Amino acid sequence: DAKTTQPTSMDCAEGRAANLPCNHSTISGNEYVYWYRQIHSQGPQYIIHGLKNNETNEMASLIITEDRKSSTLILPHATLRDTAVYYCIVRRSNQAGTALIFGKGTTLSVSS
Amino acid sequence: GAVVSQHPSWVICKSGTSVKIECRSLDFQATTMFWYRQFPKQSLMLMATSNEGSKATYEQGVEKDKFLINHASLTLSTLTVTSAHPEDSSFYICSARDTGGRYEQYFGPGTRLTVT
User: Fold this and answer.
1) Is the pLDDT of residue B101 over 70?
2) Cα–Cα distance, A44 to B106 (Å, whole number)
3) Is B97 in Cβ contact with A100 (below 8 Å)?
4) pLDDT the model gives residue B104
5) Is the pLDDT of residue A111 over 60?
6) Nearest to A43 among B31, B46, B109 (CB)
7) Nearest-by-Cβ selection for A102 from B1, B31, B43
8) What is the pLDDT of residues B48-96, one digit of tens each?
9) CB spacing of A103 vs B43 below 8 angstroms
10) How many A×B Cβ pairs under 8 Å?
């Protein structure tokens, strides 16, 4: 699987958009980008995933660059409850039966 | 969305005893479940992959005789920490993939194990 690089930490004011970047410059054509988050002392929560088109759901938007070497997770109106560690993971489509491998992620701190 | 439960949510046990942690997929069937361990301020580390009806596959460095995994049905996997020691104290998290066609992995809430 392609390696991902994320900033260690980010801060965001409550109500503002949180934009979390992820670099995956070695991503290959059949690899998806997944985002999960982990709130303190809880299990990870699925947020969104995409291949090459931008995706949006009720939680967030995922913007993938045209060359697919990087992506940005956008929380449009961050709340205090969005404070968590956010993980960007790249995985091949045919690896759905294999485990997700977590890196260190980005610790997002949302403050009032 | 799909729900994965774990039981217990936290447990304290004495050194040398064994502890069983259950992981259940509540509204879907899971041929494959995964067990992770997380130490404070660290990321999740994959311990093993559990397949229904067959032996688990353990990651390098994880002792299969110490961490016994059983996946007897499509909705239940168990992790037994045998002869627990204080260094086994950790946050244990399971996850499951819905075999009904979706690709997302769903995670349980985790079990906090403290060995005294």
Assistant:
1) no
2) 8
3) no
4) 72
5) yes
6) B109
7) B43
8) 998 888 889 999 999 999 999 999 899 999 999 999 999 999 999 999 9
9) yes
10) 55
Residues 39-98 of chain A with CB under 8 A from chain B are 41-46, 49, 85, 87, 93, 96-98
The answer to whether A99 contacts chain B (CB < 8 Å) is yes
Using a 10 angstrom Cβ sphere, with 0-12 exposed, 13-18 middle and 19 or more buried, the burial of residue A10 is: middle
Q: Is the pLDDT reported for residue A1 higher than 80?
A: no
Q: What is the pLDDT of residue A61?
A: 98
Contacts of B114 (CB under 8 A, 6+ apart): B10, B11, B12, B13, B89
**Chain B contact probe: residue of A31, A45, A46 with most B CBs at under 10 A:** A46
Contact criterion met (CB below 8 Å) for A48 and A55: yes
Could you list the beta-strand ranges (E) of chain B: 4-7, 10-13, 19-25, 32-38, 45-51, 57-58, 67-73, 76-81, 90-97, 105-107, 111-115
Instruction: Report the C-alpha gap between B53 and B74 in whole angstroms.
Output: 9
